[in-house]
Amino acid sequence: MRIDEKTGRGIAVSTDASGRYTQLDPYTGAQLALAEAFRNVAVTGATPKAVSNCLDFGSPEDPGVMWQFQQAVRGLADGCATLGIPVTGGNVSFYNQTGSTAILPTPVVAVLGVIDDVHRRIPTGLGLEPGETLILLGDTRDEFDGSIWSQVEHGHLGGVPPKVDLAREQLLADILLASSRDGLVTAAHDLSEGGLAQAVVEAALAGETGCRILIPEGADPFVTLFSESSGRVLVAVPRTEETRFTGMCTARGLPWTRIGVVDEGSDSVEVQGHFSVTMAKLREAFEGTLPALFG
To answer: What predicted TM-score, i.e. pTM, was given to this entire model?
Structure first.
């Protein structure tokens, strides 16, 4: 797409999918992919406008695969109707299998958004302003079925995927759009695979700055850090705008939790009372996987 630079207008595009969630529940899995792509566009300050897709499944001659496909299409259609955005195109890919073993059902969902002024876009990296407050938007629940933790630590795939709340996704998008327009948020990162821990690390690495995370009183540290509950976003808020931002969230009925601060003088991500990892080690792990695999 070509956009006239004079307009200041920009676009944001995200593609997301989870074959694990869709294997557990094809209807919900498709909606979770839609919700994540929608949220990834919203965290830039863009307004989601349209959906495309690539629906990847095994053989449609298998009744089980055909049922998965039907449920995923229905979930995607219902989700788009709820969010009020059209599917403008897409494709279907069948017979993705080795012998009689099909791939996990994988609807890949793309969402395109428009931002009126790219100068007001919300970046991913922390540390744009000194001493930013880190706030977690949304509800964190004990939801680990189909998660990266279950896969990596236990090789397990079972149970039910996280709940999807499309009304919450729309509310998040509205608040992020208003925050972009009014300069209330200096960084934002959605929560998905890996949960809060993964989002904090990626945002810290993008901003090349350390931060301190404080587990809320009474909360389970493991659930707080690694739950994959949907409808959540990590935001960095300037101290001067914290009261205004949290007041808007409270007035709109969006749960929020203060979970830390950006520490631009630190070279580590610290979860107070639990552990600390240097930025150098995090970057080595984050950037070293593919070179280690392929040489």
So the answer is: 0.95
